[in-house]
Amino acid sequence: MSSPGAVSNREAATKAPGALNIPGWMQWTALSGRSIRAGLREGDVVLAFSAPLVFYVCFYVPLRRSMEVSGIDYAQYLLPLIVVYAMFFGSMFAGDRAAREVAGGMATRLRSMPLRSWVPVAARMSANLMRAVAALVGALVIGTVFGFRFHAAGAALVFLVVALAFGAALVICTDTLGTVTRNPDLSGTVLFGPQLLLIMISTGFVPVQGFPGWIQPFVRNQPVSQVTDALRGLADGRFTAQLGVAAIWIGALLVGGAVLATRVEGRRL
After folding, report:
1. What is the Cα–Cα distance from 74 to 72, expressed in whole angstroms?
2. Residues in CB range of 79: below 8 A, 6 or more apart
3. Cα(200)–Cα(198) distance, rounded to whole angstroms?
4. Which residues of 224-257 are buried (b: 16+ CB within 10 A; e: fewer)?
5. Cα gap 55→158, rounded to integer Å
6. What is the pLDDT of residue 266?
7. Which residues fall within 8 angstroms of residue 179, CB to CB, at 6 or more apart?
């Protein structure tokens, strides 16, 4: 790790007489293309698309009968959680990719170039969002096959925006974790436990009344439940109170993750 003044020295180098003055957006475009091509070549997009299909079938088939006895349309109820689950799953790619770039020496090569400090992070985010879009499409395809439907066009558009914003918030945090740990295996292992806990102890699979009373406050208010319930309301054409809470969670994760990612990238440079 270089000294804290390395970033300012690097920015100054880009402005030195005779230095190549390539606009930041061109640097971002070039690195984004590289990351996206790598994701396509290594099958990340296919896996991101197909994972929600497997998740949906694995949970819908065994739980449908018991939930529909209670009058719940489980195809409609389950899909928002599958979207959230897919965003978590995709975020593990982000941590893995970031750690591999550091461990594999790509970050060292970028260090020798007059890049803006935000460019490597933004380029990785482009590829991560591509995976998030593939995961969202996969979830909607399998949900539609089993009977999921949107009930209002405007709310459906907000549904898509909230889902992708949640995915972006997760990947920027996991990208930072991968950059810090520099260990692809560790970043995936660290993420798996918390995400599984949050998903299983949420209102994603069953309503909050299905949990013991002592844990219901946590189940009701934790971020996965809030985001899932907000998406569920939007799918039904309703703008619920959970949407505001979900927006706060997503905004906090986005801002906190962006600040940490920029600082970590700057220190590393």
Report:
1. 6
2. 56, 139, 140, 143, 148, 235
3. 6
4. bbbbbbbbbbbbbeeebebbebbbebbeebbeeb
5. 23
6. 65
7. 98, 99, 101, 102, 261, 264, 265, 268
How many angstroms separate the CA atoms of 156 and 163, rounded? Answer: 11
Sign of the dihedral defined by the CA atoms of residues 204, 207, 208, 212, in that order: negative
| pLDDT tens digits for range 180-228 | 887 777 666 677 788 888 998 999 888 898 899 999 999 998 999 999 9
Residues of the chain where predicted confidence (pLDDT) is lower than 50: 1-7
Q: Decide: 179 and 102 in contact? Cβ < 8 Å.
A: yes
Single-letter amino acid code for the residue at 45: V
Q: Phi and psi (nearest 5°) for 227?
A: -70, -40
Residue 44: predicted pLDDT:
84
* Strand, coil or helix: 69: coil
Q: Is 57 exposed, middle or buried (0-12, 13-18, 19+ CB in 10 A)?
A: middle
Distance from C-alpha of 51 to C-alpha of 253, rounded to nearest angstrom = 24
Angle at 136 between CA 258 and CA 61, to 5 degrees: 130
pLDDT per residue as tens digits for the range 131-148: 899 999 999 999 999 999
User: Which residues 6+ apart lie within 8 Å of 200 measured at CB?
Assistant: none
Q: Is the separation of the CB atoms in 117 and 262 below 8 Å?
A: yes
DSSP at 236: T
Joined tokens for residue 239: 């703008």
Cα dihedral 80/82/85/86 (nearest 10)? -110
- The pLDDT of residue 14: 54
Q: Indicate the helix (H) or strand (E) that contains 137.
A: helix 119-146
Distance CA(117)–CA(264), nearest Å, equals 10
The alpha carbon of 17 is separated from its chain's Cα centroid by a whole number of angstroms, namely 41
pLDDT value at position 175? Answer: 85
